[in-house]
């Protein structure tokens, strides 16, 4: 298939849909809605004929020249068709009345037949007023209610409505754009992030001499004239490209006015003598002195306090100034700093003594999962009173723990709860949360007018964003199953329930051995060795390694030969020893020497009476056996006993964990957490 850019030739005439018909879909930027028939026409126009990529015959003889010639001729005559639309799909819109033109991108093919829905940006660029569309859609009724059925659609006047021509038009990817602000004083903190977010979310193209509106983080609007492009032309594509942006003043007078406003703001910047104080971290031990200008906020963070006691946030205002106090616990469900329109606790009152208090009880549900308390001091101003906004308001902020029973040190009434903000905040789509799946601060999204969405949020405990983000899948680290992220907590709870009913693994009967009887398989599988055909191979209760020195390939139905081999091994240990420098076996000459104990049974006559009770207890699996083992097995057994002494897990599970993780203590703890049930009562 050809990799060259697709040139699509298509155009059509559409009536402009009334903005109220698409208001609920929040059409922004340069996006349009076209009808479904437009997509079908575009696909038909993009149909391309190309050479076949497959053979129409099964086989031919390469040594037969006639067969080869026939195959080549058949392939040259066979061609296939395919449909491919360019990406991104771009259009040029032309207003037939005034000749205005603008480029646009497609959002959906869901408009009514014969209509195109335009965003406010496109309406302004094309010079279309909403009242013009009303005049068309609300045509006056016929006189006397008589309808002329003999009149065809083609007989209607051409200017019976706002109609525009939509043409498919591919634009080059832009590398440079110059923007000129339409007003002086534009000075946001970060132009780059604002433009990136706006262009990525709402724009496919930019048109020369159009007006670009950018929304600021505080809700303000910045308007720019799109002045210059590279590559030069009437428009560029801004999708999948690195775009360099220059912002230059419209003229010298505007540049001077912008500098003057920036200099004036810098004199009132936070931290200056005439500006608001700079927010910081506070504690319950020290009062905070500060000042705030009208309309400004000073934000504080209280990271720690006694969560078992009530806490009061007290604000003392001087000179009878109007200052508001807001508090919001910072948690996964509340990330935004307190503001007059978004907060959990607030005090807008004007107390006679100038003291405002917000008391939060330790049992308040809003404190659940709170990392810290966010406190904001707001300078209230009357709209339009510029002189009042420039006056700093001095205050003292303090946080104190309050004795619930009441005390002389904190004589504060706890009867009245602090005022709570509107419940609409809880379901506001723009409320910031910390998503538990992507771990980013994002809007919680959702439709506050949809009862089903609110009910699902309450029942599941997940916001609309978390429900969508939690639909991604991942592998369970325990069983390997593919699980949705939002279902992982329930899946992990099932594993916890399974652990409770798991039987303890059987361990080797040897007193010094640190192995299980049947081995440990992958993913915490108990008896894994036996299931794979690698069981102990005996009924003495010894693991395969401890039993291997006793094994002989002979018929011994009564076990007499096995009894003699066990007796011989005990006698050898007592009289000669195993020779292992790390041996700690009390029933071994070497082990007793290593432990500083006196030797037992140096001769056969002395050792036989000692061994006889051990032989009689062979069939009693409750009695330990005393064979020498390797140093690794001894070390694992000692480590397992240390783990079991912590009182969290049984000794059998500790032995299994160290066997599964080859003696690694840290990994063994992880294995126990994943697969072993904790002791009852913990």
TrEMBL record:
Q: Which residues form the Ubiquitin-protein ligase E3A N-terminal zinc-binding domain?
A: 568-607
Residue ranges annotated as compositionally biased, kind Basic and acidic residues, are: 149-161
Gene Ontology molecular function terms on file: polyubiquitin modification-dependent protein binding
Chain ranges of the Ubiquitin fusion degradation protein UFD1 N-terminal subdomain domain: 83-137, 173-249
On whether DNA-binding is a keyword of this UniProt record, the answer is: no
Q: Which domain of life does this protein belong to?
A: Eukaryota
Report the residue ranges that make up the DUF7590 domain in this protein.
275-401
UniProt keyword Membrane, yes or no: no
Q: What's any one GO cellular component for it?
A: VCP-NPL4-UFD1 AAA ATPase complex
Q: Name one GO biological process term.
A: ERAD pathway
What UniProt keywords are attached to this protein's entry? Ubl conjugation pathway
Q: Where is this region: Disordered?
A: 139-161
**Record's PANTHER family?**
FUSION DEGRADATION PROTEIN (UFD1), PUTATIVE (AFU_ORTHOLOGUE AFUA_4G04640)-RELATED, UBIQUITIN FUSION DEGRADATON PROTEIN 1
- Family affiliation: Belongs to the UFD1 family.
Protein name listed in UniProt: Ubiquitin fusion degradation protein UFD1-domain-containing protein
Instruction: Look up and give the organism this protein is from.
Output: Apodospora peruviana
